[in-house]
Amino acid sequence: xxxxxxxxxxxxxxxxxxxxxxxxxxxxxxxxxxxxxxxxxxxxxxxxxxxxxxxxxxxxxxxxxxxxxxxxxxxxx
Length: 77
Fold this sequence. Notes:
flat
């Protein structure tokens, strides 16, 4: 039995405002793990990040490039 793995990468642009961008960033696995373990420890950092995002977007909707990676495993019998 032979196994092979393939990786496919793609990306596309989507319209994004500050709230959407911040929500996506906060939903990432690593951030969620830290928030579950000790959510109060990051309060000030989260507030600072939110302010940076708001300042950058300046109430605009901008195109943001999102990248994706998909790994496929194939078993040949």
